[in-house]
Amino acid sequence: MSQRHRTFTMNTEHGVVPDGREPSLINLYRRLIPDWTALAHKGGAGRVAVVGGCLEYTGAPYFAAMAATYTGADLAYVFCEQSAAIPIKAHAADLIVIPTMHASEARIPATNQREGPVDRVLAEQADAPPPPTSLPAETDDAYAVHIFGQWLPRLHAVAFGPGLGRDPRVLGAVQHMLAMAVEQRVPIIIDADALYLLGVAGRAGDDTRLSRALAARRQRESAHGGAATTAAAPLVLTPNAVEGNRLLHSFQSAAVERLLEEVLTAADLVVEKGTLDRLHFCATDARYPSPLLCSERGSPRRCGGQGDVLCGALLTSMAWAHRCLDESVRRHPHRYLAAAHGACRLTRIAARMAFAERYRATVASDVLAQVGPAFRTLECEPATPPTRVVQAGTFADASDEQR
Ligand SMILES: NC(=O)C1=CN([C@@H]2O[C@H](COP(=O)(O)OP(=O)(O)OC[C@H]3O[C@@H](n4cnc5c(N)ncnc54)[C@H](OP(=O)(O)O)[C@@H]3O)[C@@H](O)[C@H]2O)[C@@H](O)CC1
Ligand SMILES: Nc1ncnc2c1ncn2[C@@H]1O[C@H](COP(=O)(O)OP(=O)(O)OP(=O)(O)O)[C@@H](O)[C@H]1O
After folding, report:
1. Residue to substitute in 160, 273, 355 for testing ligand 2 pocket (most ligand atoms within 8 angstroms of CB)
2. How many whole angstroms separate alpha carbon 312 and alpha carbon 44?
3. Is the backbone peptide bond immediately before 385 cis, with ω within 30 degrees of 0?
4. Of which family is this protein a member (predicted)?
5. Rg value, the chain, Cα
6. Residues at the annotated binding site for (6S)-NADPHX?
7. Helix or strand (DSSP H, E) at 81
8. Where are the chain's structural domains?
């Protein structure tokens, strides 16, 4: 096993997870799905948004927002860097694309990402006065934050990061947008380049707007004795192997549990993507030790964009878990865990189905196209799959080592 993989894989003593636990989670997931009466009102099954997309990466926000729609959200918005808007609109007329952020004049190519300039911009912001309460209408970063702020109250969940790139000016604006979403208590997914932003905000000390918003959120939640409250909106981190290790390094953490303790709250989850998906959370129930593994068989293809599909599936699932009309489900302590677990399974079933059809030619668009059929499988499969034991790390294998 490679060093990179080993450092981010936690709690291996909990690595043996009987699949027999999954039925109750899948049953709970099914109870999160809005019924058809909710669908009578456009938006009742979710109005969600993806903040991402830059000149180089227009596929990632498209995959994430479309996966959210195919999972069941009624409306999906994309808030992107200006130059990405037309290509994303051209990918899908189903999406509402809002050109929002502006890259730096001397833009830094996303494919040539450097940490230095971003560090400098965020450090400068730490010394700046707090953001103005009335924002000028000019098309600058304040304008981007203002536009997003106008839409935010209508959104049921927001994913930050797919295809965002690392332009300092864009990340500077998104830091404020993310902080606003934290303050509004909307479910948030932090993926891809937004994980990088989170790491930079953590490294810059405790005085960025984002770190202040996260600290206030932690304080709010710890007032409830560390237990997830029904009002708490989850923050879900979805690192791949590289992003996970970068995050741990940024927060000088040896373990993902420290991230959960010091950056996140009891309502939060870290979905560590890999051969098996590992769901890390503040475990309060002996039946569900952290990390919980998602052992659904996926696809051997590792084409780009599959993480974006997962991000979109999570986005809609988290919106449902947060807003579920059924009071008993909304108060269920494992509803976010069930939502994340269901989204992981959905993505892996879709990937498996795509691979069965397209074999070596499978690309993220094929996985996306299978989200609908995969949802049917997930919704209708027998409630009690055969109990078997899955050994953590069974597949943490050559493919991880070779990367
Ligand atoms: N069509 C589009 O628009 C798409 C756009 N996308 C967007 O691209 C942006 C950057 O995302 P990213 O994942 O390429 O960047 P990052 O995390 O810095 O990794 C960089 C390097 O890390 C390595 N590596 C990767 N995985 C690994 C693993 N499991 N285990 C070990 N190593 C691993 C690998 O380098 P290698 O080690 O192979 O040299 C890789 O090149 C982001 O915004 C994302 O949303 C994508 O969503 C795809 C579809
Ligand atoms: N080795 C693997 N075998 C099977 N499935 C995997 C493997 N690695 C990741 N997956 C699955 O692929 C999906 C995306 O994970 P991945 O690690 O590729 O994310 P990512 O690198 O962020 O993707 P993206 O290319 O969209 O940025 C997840 O559903 C995960 O469960």
Report:
1. 273
2. 17
3. no
4. Belongs to the NnrD/CARKD family.
5. 20
6. 163, 240-246, 308
7. strand 75-81
8. 42-382
Closest protein CA for atom 13 of ligand 1? 192
Average confidence score pLDDT of the chain: 80
**Beta strands of 126-283 (E only): which ranges?**
157-160, 188-190, 235-237, 269-272, 277-281
pLDDT in tens, 157-201: 999 999 998 888 888 899 899 999 999 999 999 999 999 888 877
Instruction: Using DSSP, state whether 271 is helix, strand or coil.
Output: strand
Q: Which atom of ligand 1 sits closest to the CA of residue 62?
A: 3
How far, in Å, is the centroid of ligand 1 from the Cα of 211?
25
Secondary structure class of 12 (helix, strand, coil)? helix
Any residues with Cβ below 6 Å from ligand 1, and which?
4, 57-60, 162-164, 192-193, 240-243, 304-305, 307-308, 403
The complex scores an ipTM of: 0.93
CATH of domain 42-382: 3.40.1190.20
Give 203-231 pLDDT, tens digit per residue: 655 577 888 888 888 888 777 665 556 66
Which residues carry a binding-site annotation for ATP? Answer: 273-277, 298-307
